Amino acid sequence: MQRRQFFSGAASAVAAAAVSPVAMAALPEPVIQTSADTAAPLAPPNGRPYQPVVTLNGWTLPWRMNAGVKEFHLVAEAVVREVAPGFFVNMWGYNGQSPGPTIEVVEGDRVRIFVTNRLPEATTVHWHGQRLPNGMDGVGGLNQPHIPPGKTFVYEFEARRPGTFMYHPHSDEMVQMAMGMMGLWITHPKGRHPQIAEVARDYAFLLSAYAVEPGAMTPRVAEMTDFNIWTFNSRAFPAITPLVAGLGERVRIRVGNLTMTNHPIHIHGHEFEVTGTDGGPVPRSARWPEVTTDVAVGQMRQIELIADEPGDWAFHCHKSHHTMGAMGHDVPTMIGVDHKGLVGKIQKIVPDYMLMGERGMGDMGAMQMPLPDNTFPMMTGKGPFGNIEMGGMFTTFKVRKGLAAQDYRDPGWYAQPPGTAANEWQGAPLDAQAPRQTLPGTAPGAPSVHKPATGSGHANH
Amino acid sequence: MKRLSTRLSALAAALLLAGCASVSPDGLRSDVAQQLQGRLPDEAALPATDAQAQQLAQTQINAWLQQPVDADTAVRIALLNNPGLQVQLAQLGVADAQRVQAITLPNPSLSLGWFRNGHEREVERKLSFGLVDLLTLPWRSRWQGWQMEQATLEAAQQTLLLAADTRRAWLNAVAAEQALAANTRMHDAAALGGELARRMAVVGNFSKLEQARELAQQQQAAAQLARASLAAEQAREQLAQRMGLWGQQLTFTLPQALPPLPKAASDLRSGDDAEATALRERLDLGALRRNLEVSTDRQGWAALGAVFGDIGLTYSRNTSTERDSGHQERTRGWELDVPLPLFDWGSAASSMARHQVQANAAQLRESAIRARSEARSSWRAYRTAWDLAHQQQTEVLPLAQLVQEETIYRYNGMFISVWQLLAQARSTTQAVLTATEAQRDFWLAETDLQLALSGTSPPPAGASARAARNPAAPAAPQNEPQGH
Ligand SMILES: [Cu+2]
Q: Residue A403 and which of A189, A443, B193, B395 are 20 to 30 A apart at CA?
């Protein structure tokens, strides 16, 4: 079982970076996160109160108050992210992790963000979805000079609009995002908001995808379509923290998409409403129930539901290959292919050969065969009933009765009430084997169709 | 009469002794063997002349053929059994007999005359010798001896060339069998891919195009296998031909692998003394040195022979009988028959001999330069061949193995198909094949180096490989010694 330890507070999980206090005398000390675990929500120590979010396998960036301004310090730098147990990827991120820390502020806050560039190339930060002065929008060359390596720039604006936002570079954007540079920005409403419900739990994560060659460690940044690592917050199942909820609680889940394709995010056992986008809260009159919402490229979706069905519910992207780990994208289908007499012969030539795919790919979940170093397996994850056979954008939504408000720990596998799980039919078996409609490789009802032989004698008869 | 005959027989005996004119009983084979000392594998012997020894040799050959034939054994068999070598050795015997014939004193000629006139009857008896033959006998005897030494040296060189040829043929044959095994493995992999593709198409998982692509691989591998099989047979034929085998003996087997490479560069022959060794050891240089000595010596009698080539010494005993009285009168006396050197004072002959000496000296120098160069370049080729083969063995093959392992890991992770796995197996085998060829080339270069250092000129670079491909190509005789 994956260790999912929560930290009692962000402070214990972070370490002061080795930046000379003299050199950065005027700057807030940057806070660096060394763990890819989900940090406990950061209760605001000062400023306006709000209900903090839980960033899946992430954390919230602490700030300092400076004459009424909330000051944050982001450090853009190379990081090594543990995407799954034993699978590490060289990424670019912020303050020790990719994605960077979540920035949480309250509607009306004056915010000052110091951005130090420790990348080998220039960068900027674009505050995706924010209302702000043009010069603070972070598009390098258009709104501001690119931040050269080694320099620190300062952004300052007022968080005018409550909602779910993100930040990402707008300087060599394709490379920097392909390398994992992104983070969440949550602006909480100041007091009660007519369109924004109060929730018991508020989860947030970003969707990102990487192209990592099996056995390599650095994403191929030139890749446009053929990604093989699909993640929530740069983590892949089974390494993604489950979302837990007390029975009957109202839960909000915020999802942002910084991949190059859309993701139909789907929850089992419940229906939800999309209550907001990065454009703001959706008017109540415009909401409708869903069990899947498509999060298009560059969009944020904020969904809400009442966790009223106890159990362990799958929560995932509905593009099935996005719930798979790394796999070859042009491997032919081997299902149903007779290997009789061939396996031994192949093993004479390739001694370590094992037959795979003859019955489908499910065997992959069960087989423990050596893979290239640092390779995320195609499907994995053990559940109470066997292999879950998933990898990538997949996790669980765990609803339990009597969960304490601040208890985000994994409650373990759900104990289903007796007689409520699908089980083997104990009655009389099917008396005869059902005949197939057609033989494999034969079109139904058309076994004797031949192409007309052109120029043959038949045509003249 | 009695006194004379005593004198004559004494002279004849002295001359016979001076000529040492006896035929070598084994046709100079032991002299050849002497020259080959240390240049052939242990227990390698030249074919014997007597029938019983030949029978013994055949028994020995058949015993050797029961085991996988290694390179040294192949050389031993070829030396005993190669008819081409036997032709040469027999000719050496012929030449030896000719030598003896040449320096045996010419038989004196006896002329008898019977004349009559009105009152007399005359019987004339003449016993004559070519005097120059006698006078030049020591020179000619020496010269013939050197000629034989040269012919022996030449036969030794030819023997070394046959040994080297046999060694090359053995290396090519063993490597070709290894290549055949590798090609069989490659074909097996392609055939499996083809069969699996066929089964894929049967259940509808492959299109005709996809199936055809895999079948094309199989076809290509089959053609390559056929070529490898032919090459192996031809290389084996080459070897069998060198070893002089036919019939039942052709079922001999070879070891499955070439000898291992020397492990470290320090195990290799050093190149420092290569030139000196070649100058000291090479038989062709020895032959040319001898040749120069011969022509220098020959200079001494060339003019004399040209001028006085026809001096004749005649002893005559004439008897004339008066027919009426029956009175007999005997005349005895010597006649000397001397050509008058009016026109040919031997200057052309001595000039020819002088120029021959110059030519032979220059030839020796040229050959020495070539031998030095061949020693250097053979050593360089040998050293480079080892570097290349060593690289194949210690770098390329482990790398191919690593690629093979990583490929199967990729197959395990379903990143690639079994066809890509089989294709990788084929290219790993190809790497094994390349390494085998490099190993063979090292031993071929080693054979050339041995020849260049101790025997004679190796064939030009690449000739060994060409010979392997073209069984009809004869081994060109190298560096025909001059002067006879
Ligand atoms: Cu998806």
A: A189
